Amino acid sequence: MKKMLILTAVATLLLAGIAADAQESGRMGGILKVATVGEPPTLDLQATTTTLTSEIMWHVYESLFTYDRSWTPVPHLAESHAVTDRGLRHTITLRRGVQFHNGKEMTATDVVASLKRWGQVASIGKVLWTTVESIDAKDTYTVVIGLRQPSASLVFGLATTAAAVLTREIAETAGPNQLNEFIGTGPYRFVEHKADRHIKLVRFKDYAARPEPSNGFAGKRTAWLDEILFIPVPDTAVRLAGVESGEYHHAMFVKQDAYERIRRLPALEPRIVKPRGWALISLNHKAGLMTSKPLRQAIQAALDMEPVMAAGFGHKDFYRLGPALFFPELPWHSTAGAQLYNQRDKDKARRLVKEAGYTRQPVRWISTQEYEFMYKTALVAKQQLEEVGFVIDLQVVDWATLNHRVQKPDLWEAYVTGYPLFPDPALHVAFRCTFQGWWCNEEKERLIAEMRQESDLKKRKALVERVQAIHYEDVGQVKLGDYYTLDAARRELRGEFRTAPYLYFWNSWLAR
Amino acid sequence: MAVTDPAARPLDLATTPTSRWTTPRWLVTLTRRKIALAGAAIVAVTIVVGTLAPVIAGNPTHMDVKSRLTRPTAVHWFGTDDVGRDVYSRVVYGARLSLFVGAAVVGFSFFFGLSAGLVAGYYRVLDNSIMRVMDGLMAFPAIVLAIALMASLGPSVVNVIVAIGVVYTPRVARVVRGAVLVVRETAYVEAARALGVSDIGILARHVLPNCLSPVIVQGSFVFAAAVLTEAALSFLGVGVPPYVPSWGNILSEGRLYIQQAPWLVLYPGAAIMLTILGLNLFGDALRDLLDPKIRGLQTERQRAG
Questions:
Q1: Omega before A176 cis (within 30°)?
Q2: Which residues contact B129 (CB under 8 A, 6 or more apart)?
Q3: Which residue in A422, A507, B30, B264 has the fewest CB atoms around it within 10 Å?
Q4: Residues of chain B found within 8 Å of residue A375, distances taken between Cβ atoms
Q5: Residues A138, A141, A146, A147: what is their CA dihedral angle, to the nearest 10 degrees?
Q6: pTM of the prediction?
Q7: pLDDT by residue (tens digit) across A148-194?
Q8: Closest partner CB to B63 (pick from A257, A372, A379)
């Protein structure tokens, strides 16, 4: 017995030694400079779905839950979570001693006010809030959410960055309006935003980290860096040149075609963000030509995805083809509808075009060059669709105009966009009847409503499969393929700073 | 240059050699003519290439994504771009577009510039109001004004022509007005007026023909500037729509690949440079031929030198 104990102790020590060797420890200090794709449209994390805003502001704000490496929601600001009353009552106990950047302790009233605002302004929040009956602070550290019907999606929603916890005063003062004061509980606190120059965050000295080791976004977060500067650099070539010359430590979104070159540069490290999202043609189901199902099916039948994706994403290591609406990295992965993906069947497409009674009216296709793939994929798709008889009116505008136009059903038929990773299938934007594209389908709505309530993984997966099959049969949107993006970092930037597809800089440091 | 003969005219090839300096002067003249000839030749080649584009080049918008970013080869003389379009075809069609835009802008600015200049110069009452508007337009840097106009008009070839045309109209108007101010005081205009010729008759038959030579010279520069401005606008993404093959567009897209695929910027860049060079040389020669004042000035300069 004694021998055994000694052996175990020795083994443990050895293992610990190996682990310590493999994981070099961090260094405190330094100013990290990150070149971003541009100015975020807002810093109000709750009110936007823009990834860039999240990637900056989730250093400042935290949510009750977050995702671990397997995309399962786990408590973050919450200590524990209990569901009672046949799934109608969620009791969330908060961690004690968590401080806001203004020195106040986070309590249940802050959480209640924040979530109320989230239910009012956030896109997922609004969806979920329809099932919320009440939200109350039971005591200083307990929040109780009462539901009208059970919801498996609620915790997934509370784990999104938008469900951030603000102070009660700020949440109540702002209401549905934009936030103008940024006080959270995160490892970094917001200092200033100088338009077109930088957004400056500095280490929050009194940050209350979780004790568990880091796992995905979950667990311990350490602020090694003194300061983080997010610098808007809209030109991709300039971002790469800047990180090459040492002006920045990290450049978001450099051209995939630069991959081989970055690999050869000793000071740089290429970071493939895999997967980033899936590219698709969003079709307008509310007005115009694409309300015709045969016409939508014609587009789906005609396209040859390989050249479309190659034009959009360049290097072959940066895209993959496949029908799945959920990545193989997620538990919901399915290949339902595969026979309708990447058909390359021109004759079928011509037949469907004829059947639809299409008489060469121009298909208004909105695109932008700011996100190059949106333009390049559209360009190749245009050529392929014109071969089967479509007339495509490609309107190239700036990104802001595109966003504005696609909200208006009378202005467009199609546009290319990318949907990011959604951990909860029931909340995926591709299935949301209210989101631009407005794909509403009776059967699909029913299945999604069922999915929101269903917490059994197997049953959920079966529902996802059925929804995906409907997606291909009814052509909700035309999936082009999965894509990855490329970031470039300097080698002195260490630590895990990305769990694809989201970027964060807690737990990373600058080596000497 | 130590040339002394005050009677010499740079273009006067028939000058009999009278001193030991004759040979260099004659050489200088010839060189200038040679350069002019080279300019004209470049312009002519561009025109021929642009006109014959459908014959000598393939489809500039056809994409063969599999062979994207291939180096210049026997099949793709100038290589291919990032969606597999043939850069040679695009550059050739780009010449067509550039020439079309250049010519149309000259037409536009001549029509409005000549009318404004003639009226302003001839009717002194209108002079101030018209020319202050022109000054107002000229106060903006050309490219900034063109960008502003494009932003409000939206991207299309016609809008590019209108935007650049508006920008260069005041330059034509100014030259015309200046010339009209001189001509309207001449004896033959006085005489025509005394004979009771109508204003329109005087403007059309006497004033206009005598103002043309500076305007033609100005035209060649407007043409060059229009080609350059179109390229700049397209490069900045506010010119013709990005899928239309234009030198500016090809450059703008190729810029992102400058380290991997330099041929994407090399050929359209060279095309812009050569065309502008050709047009400017040709314009200089035209000026030398048509403008007696400059001819005189050069002689002065030669004397001083």
A1: no
A2: none
A3: B30
A4: 242
A5: 170
A6: 0.81
A7: 999 999 999 999 999 999 999 999 999 999 999 999 999 999 999 99
A8: A379
